[in-house]
Amino acid sequence: SQTIHQWPATLVQPVGSPLSLECTVEGTSNPNLYWYRQAAGRGLQLLFYSVGIGQISSEVPQNLSASRPQDRQFILSSKKLLLSDSGFYLCAWSESADTQYFGPGTRLTVL
Amino acid sequence: GESVGLHLPTLSVQEGDNSIINCAYSNSASDYFIWYKQESGKGPQFIIDIRSNMDKRQGQRVTVLLNKTVKHLSLQIAATQPGDSAVYFCAEIRPLWVSFGAGTTVTVRA
Fold first, then answer.
1. Which helix (H) or strand (E) holds A81?
2. A-chain residues within 8 Å CB-CB of B42?
3. Residue B56 Cα distances to A12, A76, B49, B50, B66, angstroms
4. Residue A66, pLDDT above cutoff 60
5. According to the model, what pLDDT value does residue A97 have?
6. Residues on chain A touching B34 (C-beta within 8 angstroms)
7. Does the pLDDT of residue A13 top 90, yes or no?
8. Which residue of B has its CA nearest to A43?
9. Which residues in chain B are closer than 8 Å to A33, comparing Cβ atoms?
């Protein structure tokens, strides 16, 4: 069966510091991968999606970036965090343009 | 723009009663919908899906109804239990795109 992992689970970072969140998927090949951000009490905002290694599409202009160095690895990064980057970050995968399955999430607090 | 939304942000339900969570969508071309459940501090979990060629689909204690005429989607939870307390999202699926509503927070009263 397929599983999706995210780490770290929680992170507290100062403003201006870098960020690296990692997501890995097991049990499937060439998945579509997604990064979402969820602000408190709000819905999910799609940040990036990837249909293959090295292929990244950005949905929202911001100071975040994403990379996919391996087939089942998706990384969300920032060179300098802003206060507004605080939130719950979710990684998801799908086999095609179909049901997305979510990871456990990373709670990021920028102080 | 077109979006998916939920009618009510909160729903309080007595344990054992049935819950009904509603969702309206605006893209009449959408043909696939999912309900997710998100417990506090966790990622959303897939509950049930439905395609536009269906009006109703049943799972374990859950039923999703789709009314394409009025572009309305609902999730019914039978005999609501404390473990059903969570935020419920409807999602509209398009190729490489998902639109989510802000969610309905369901609280189950003992």
1. none
2. 104-105
3. 44, 38, 10, 7, 6
4. yes
5. 62
6. 99
7. yes
8. B102
9. none
